[in-house]
Queue: 4 jobs
Job 1
Amino acid sequence: MRIDFTPLFRSRFVKIAKRTDKWKGNTENIQRKVLSKLLKKGASTEYGKANGFDKILESDDIYESYTSGVPLVSYEDIRPLVMRMINGERDLLWPGFCRDYAQSSGTSGGKSKFIPVTADSLSGNHYRGGEDAVAHYMRNNPGSKIFSGKGFILGGSFSNTLGIKEGRVHVGDLSATLINRITPLAEIVRVPDKKTALMPDWDRKLPALVEKAGGEYVTNISGVPSWFLTVLRNILKESGKESLKDVWPGLEVFFHGGISFEPYREEYQSITKGLDMKYVETYNASEGFFAVQNDPLDNSMLLIIDRDVFYEFIPENEPDAKPVPAWKTEPGKIYELVVTSSNGLWRYRLGDTVRVIQTDPVKIKIAGRTGAFINAFGEELMDDNAEKGVARASKETGAFIKNFTAAPVYPKKGEKGRHQWLIEWDKEPADLQDFAKALDSALCDLNSDYDAKRKGSIFLGEPEIISAREGLFDDWLRSQGSHKLGGQRKVPRLSNSREIIDCLLKMNRI
């Protein structure tokens, strides 16, 4: 007989969710307290001393003193300090020694970013954010039996691309750190075991996941939609079933994030027929757990304002505008997100943009990135990666490119997702397939997240190259009302939607 432990935990989790009812009218007060707490912790660090945190704490208005005296930074500004931390130095961005770093792509200054994941950020933010997701779900679903079985958490792995000699330091996917550092008690209610979850080789890991999870009673799953779809398809294939209802009859919720769920919704509905599935979106980045969907009828997310993150918002398309705090945001506007957090990030520009849906309390939707990108499968391919990759592939194949754009092709039944590149040539390569292979290889070298998704073509297929007719891109620009060709207006190199490329492909057949 299966025992349901949900009633034992329900009151605790519902209480956690209900604390957010008191946020209305209190955003400023809560966020100012968070900022003061972070500055007190950071005052003894090298960064805190250099930026006068002690004096800021003594001022009449800590927020105004902080934002006027401490600069906005991008990752490249703090990369030297982070590398010193990775090599064992203490008290640089956050007190003490930091042993964990989340590897993430997305900058032009290097293949990867390495975001500090301090013990304080794990206990005060990342794990608390996950707790919030479960809490709001349980509050909204009083009939849930989520603790009658296990949670299937799909994670990444560690790597040592830096050749780190400090044995205490771990670098890898954020999910690997979260799984590695989680309390041993959690192992009772999650699958797979830690050893399997952290396997680096997906060719070995995928069948191991199918074997471990397929035989368990799973009630909830957590991860990136694209990654999980591949695993779930393999579980169905191995079991000979058409719906996950016949594998896990108690499956009830998918906690997802990282990329947009919409392109995958129809496929998930197809493989969960017969189940009353719920979907909860989260905003859990390498830099912090920022927001969670707290209302099943509203697909915006509640900004988590009391979990060791202080937020600022830069109005989109206003690069010289002064950032505003959460309590001064305006509904409907898109902002670039800036965070100060317990992982030692001080006024850090993520590169993410969010649309503020409501302001008291603040609810948001992820709008995109500040630059061109494709992140349909968790690959975080950036404009700079694309330019360098195309240049290298052209050199290797003797091709010359006039213009290009790329967008994702989302997976359909039985097909893998891929990137589709539409290229107008000055000199076409002798073999488009050779160009595709060269481009793929270059992007793997330039972008660690792309490389991870391309391993064994498990999650992301080889890029598809389509030749554009002469003058296609100029024709498209003219159709958009641009008469100043040759640099004044450009076709976006990368797009996370197919709106532009589908229009171009249609024009390409004319």
Job 2
Amino acid sequence: MENLMDRFLRYVAVDTQSSEESDSQPSTAKQLNLLNMLCAELKELGIEASVDEYGYVMARIPSNIDKEIPAVGFIAHVDTSPDASGADIKPQVIENYDGGAIELKGVPGLKLDPEEFPEILAHKGETIITTDGTTLLGADDKAGVAEIMNAAQYIVEHPEFKHGEVRIGFTPDEEIGRGVAKFDVAKFGADYAYTMDGGEVGELEFENFNAAAATVHIQGRNVHPGYAKGKMKNAIRIGMELNSLLPSDQKPELTEGYEGFFHIIGFNGTVEEATFSYIIRDHSMEKYEEKKAVMQQCVDEINRRYGNGTASVEIKHQYYNMRKQVEPHYHIVEKAVKAMEMEGITAHIQPIRGGTDGANLSFMGLPCPNIFAGGLNFHGKMEWVPVESMQKASAVILNILKLFAA
């Protein structure tokens, strides 16, 4: 049986970064390298599996009990965030972590320091996998992928393990909000599912942000700076002015819990024209709609100041809060809580300050809470994951199947 850590390290070696700039599905062809690999590995285990034209891997393990119970799915995404490079990842494996600062040796002086990230101290004595400081790690969500594959291999190699119908899904493009845009829920065939895409051990989530992406375009007017008085409209400065109109206290670094935000994630431009990219988030539907309206009001104000046509905005919905779709099936949350307790884990139910494929799947008729995968500091060079956390997550998968089969 392949070691879970070795499996994870093998998966993170494959560059699967998704791209918001692409309209294809998947958004980057390189994601198919891992998706095809996973499909082949499932088949090698004797599991029925396929990968479709959109990159979705779907697999089925038949029930081995003689009573009808719900089919349960487990889902993870293969893509890594566009926020940081996912190419040529060089993981560092720190065995028996001693509680000190961990040097990220690819960047001199860069450290994963408990003074800045005290949560790492809860994992003293464990095996920690970090980046080398030059890329992200990819635990989001290749930890989830490895955990599901590890559980699948256990099921195959232990026929005495009793379970109902098991469905497995691997998706592309979750990080850009299109992870299940073309996912065939009926073909997948699960009654309920869980995404293995959370963070610290014990995390369990069935509510998330309502989410939109906003792209603001500023049309300026370039004139030679020596003769620009009364004529030039600097698109960069005007965009900065628009940004200053947004609520100053509603930024990611100033919010927590159920508080939403506006987050500027990109800028590209010149004096002549510029584009500012934002994401808009809130758990409350009412406040979510208010935030979209505020963005439009800021654009209108810029046009009032500088003339119609100076600013425009395109707001695209990404996903909704899944709570109202999952709560009527709360027993699936309760089973996840019990499955954690069976491993000595206290479940920590909290709202996701983000989203998962499960949000859209829940609105597509597949109730789908989110379970911890074990990684922390996603989307950047400070990302890390304890091997023991991945082992616990894989055990929780098996425990959920036991509880459904009981």
Job 3
Amino acid sequence: MLRDITLGQYYQTDSVIHRLDPRVKLAGTLLFIISLFFFQNFLGYLAAALFLGLVIGLSHVPFRFMVRGMKAIIFLLLLTVVFNLFLTPGTPLVTFWKVTITQEGLRTAVSMAIRLTLLIIGSSVMTLTTTPNNLTDGMERGMRPLKLFRVPVHEVAMMMSIALRFIPILLEETDKIMKAQIARGADFESGNLMKRAKALVPLLVPLFISAFRRANDLAMAMEARCYRGGEGRTKMKPLIYRRRDKLAYLFILLYLCVSIPVGRLSFF
């Protein structure tokens, strides 16, 4: 299960999506996520799915690798669907015992499931096609206007980048600790939800110790190298918009101009 989490991982290959400026991918991902909340019918989600499918095809990242990341949030997805299905008032559709499924609840549950799926896969495309260094540079350049409000833009971007880098590292560390404890007789699979939660407690202690140790080593390494961010720091590979980046912006704008009006048609 832990190995199925793709968020924060980078899939190395050569594609037009990998070569795009990270600012384009950050802006495109943000606009794609925002567009999902404007749709009022399933034509909008269909347009979003087609757009996302085209981007995945251009990225040369295997689709099964994208879908594998959904296994980690299947519980959250089911919980969201169940709550919307049974707790949304409206026109009764099916009634059994004291539970009523309404037309509005069914529509909302399906809509939320599709929206959450597209959101997770869309976010994974950005991290799978962008190196942590490029992601940091893109965040820093994109948040540059916040410097007017005395926001430490470089430090914020660096923290986000380090957090993304630590996700696969901590997942690998968790997997190693779980295998070591299973070899010693630990059981993480059997029992009800409470028993499984209690079985994870011995796992969290060494995991937190390992995380703090890695964070301390990283801080000491940065301090030993006299690392200073912010003003006066140059880039080995400065970000420059190219023709493909401008075409990508036009493609994103075309998607927004088509999907949002279609997704808000009231007669569907």
Job 4
Amino acid sequence: MNNLQNARRTIEKIDAEMAELFEKRMKAAEVVAEFKKENALPIEDKKREAELTAKNSEFVSFEYQPYYESFIQNVMDVSKKYQKRVLEGMRIAYSGVEGAFAHIAARRIFRCGETVSCPDFDSAYKAVEDGACDCAVLPIENSYAGDVDRVLDLAFHGNLTVSGIYDMPLGQSLLAKPGTDIDDITEVRSHPQALSQCMPYLKRHGWKLTQAVNTAVAAKSVAEGDRNDIAVVASKDTAELYGLKILQEDINENKNNTTRFAVFTRAECKVSPKDEHFLIMFTTKNEPGSLGGAIAVIGEYRFNLRSLKSRPTGNENWEYYFYAEGEGNIDSLDGRKMIHDLKKLCENVKIIGSFSDEKVLNERSAE
């Protein structure tokens, strides 16, 4: 037997072993997909993929590393395709209609699955609590308008946890029916906040401004109407969805306008050793210095408190709950001690989220 025959037999043997290992890997990928569905996590995790590629590359000789990196990336791509198939039955609730910013965020976070339109925040949240949907994508804060108080109240009174937070820049564009020119416009429709964000641009043109329930509803009414002199302020994604023409992009005055969306799920909040961010809610005892003491505990264990917000509990007059976002791992020894000490100081402490990082949703991908 010559060297070529020996080499081919070796390859055949290795291919048979790899086929068996491939099946085992795909079965493990299915378990991962089910976990992601249960915990409302997106399929792709670029950071995890990079870490895995770098770690595994160390197992092969230097001259093979570029080829191995390509190989392992192909394996992960196949795995993601299979995971998407498992997650196709996932249902994602959002508030608004198709084309609303929450709908766009949901589609960017979850590339597969069915998005479910809900009339308001409460019904989207309840759809997950009742099991009609697997998760809900809801806004919690806007850099221009501030907190979304109703969503924070739902988080406090409800039973859902947050699996991740995603920042989506909100670029507003001027849209109209095909064949319409900017000189034809006499009226502009949109949500009051969207109109406000673009007011300097709109005032320069002197158009009549008409308020709508949200940007997507305004876009739909313009697309289905028979007037060619009406434009709408909405996102570029909405233009594609409703077949509208983009007359002018990025007309909002504040180019840094961003909304933070949280993904709410029924899954128990799981804290990973790699998590770097946490969300907690607590109420303090009605005693002097109780809030200061709670803040001091968080600082004592060297956790960076990024945000602290108060809201009325709705139970009694002048009774408040506190929503806190922090940096650090609360699964660490210091983290467990911090939570333990907080519970001694506060009437109740609720961990509603723990995740590795806060991702930015661009036009191509959430991950």
